[in-house]
Design the sequence.
């Protein structure tokens, strides 16, 4: 058993690592990594505290996932690789550090990342592209995140990372799931088409669930999952930067993840802002979503 034994050492004790797993020593197949940066936000701050809260929210995770029939911690020899050294207040310096750090991780590990705001995903995709070539992107979010600039030409925010990734040709097919909420204008809808992004909005998920599952199963080649916690309804995930009402339940997003029979090479859960949380609701959900994806990865890797 890789976790600290909960029958000997109570779950509220010991140094906080993800799921009370050991720190990494190099041989592992998957690693939890924190990227505690939130200077890309345009509304509520606080996602810099995401990795800390998600580690604490993961203390109840147990080794066996019965719904995926998987023991991800053992099968992936999962470990906690600490945090990227971000530079508060300096987004471009931070992006360089993230890219450098993740370029090492992607070589022989599957990174399971806790953000941070969504601006961190651009340098992660740059690293992934550099190491493994272009991957498909499954993007769970209530927002498109492909706006061009904010505040007078500022190119790097948590609402622009996807447009930058597309401009830089870092990704293959992009599927967005759970999109909803008010938009800046009707043109946002046509921009999705122009950019070649496949959009499944919240109604598609609620009314045509099986069609989405079938579409995603057709994805060939490596897949990166980027999950903004605001895809989940604020009733289930209140602690986030730009909440949108009328979203997925925590069960629905877990089932969507469990259904993915694709080659997942990495993932992130971003935009968890603990100062807005209550009773660890959002942090526990984020920890469980990382656990579900790890479970699915180990199931899919089995011959
Ligand atoms: Mn969002």
Sequence:
């Amino acid at each position: 058993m890789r976790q600290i034994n909960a029958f000997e050492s109570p779950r509220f004790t010991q140094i906080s690592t993800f799921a009370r797993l050991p720190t990494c020593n190099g041989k592992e197949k998957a690693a939890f990594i924190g990227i505690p940066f939130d200077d890309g936000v345009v509304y509520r701050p606080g996602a810099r505290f995401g990795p800390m809260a998600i580690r604490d929210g993961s203390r109840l995770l147990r080794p066996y996932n019965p719904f995926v029939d998987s023991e991800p911690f053992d099968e992936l020899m999962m470990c906690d690789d600490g945090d990227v050294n971000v530079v508060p207040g300096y987004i471009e310096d931070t992006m360089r550090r993230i890219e450098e750090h993740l370029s090492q991780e992607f070589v022989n590990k599957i990174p399971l990342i806790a953000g941070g705001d969504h601006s961190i995903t651009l340098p992660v995709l740059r690293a992934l592209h550099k190491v493994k070539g272009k991957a498909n992107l499954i993007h769970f979010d209530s927002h498109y995140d492909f706006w061009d600039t904010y505040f007078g030409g500022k190119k790097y925010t948590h609402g622009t990372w996807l447009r930058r990734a597309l401009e830089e040709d870092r990704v293959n097919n992009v599927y967005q799931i759970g999109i909803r909420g008010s938009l800046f204008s009707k043109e946002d809808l046509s921009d999705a088409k122009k950019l070649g992004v496949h959009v499944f909005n919240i109604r598609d998920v609620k009314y045509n669930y099986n069609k989405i599952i079938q579409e995603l199963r057709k994805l060939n080649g490596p897949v990166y999952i980027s999950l903004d916690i605001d895809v989940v309804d604020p009733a289930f995930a209140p602690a986030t930067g730009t909440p949108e009402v009328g979203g997925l339940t925590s069960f629905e997003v877990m089932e969507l993840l469990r259904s993915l029979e694709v080659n997942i090479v990495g993932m992130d859960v971003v935009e968890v802002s603990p100062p807005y949380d209550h009773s660890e609701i959002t942090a526990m959900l984020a920890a469980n979503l990382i656990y579900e994806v790890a479970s699915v990865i180990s199931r899919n890797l089995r011959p």
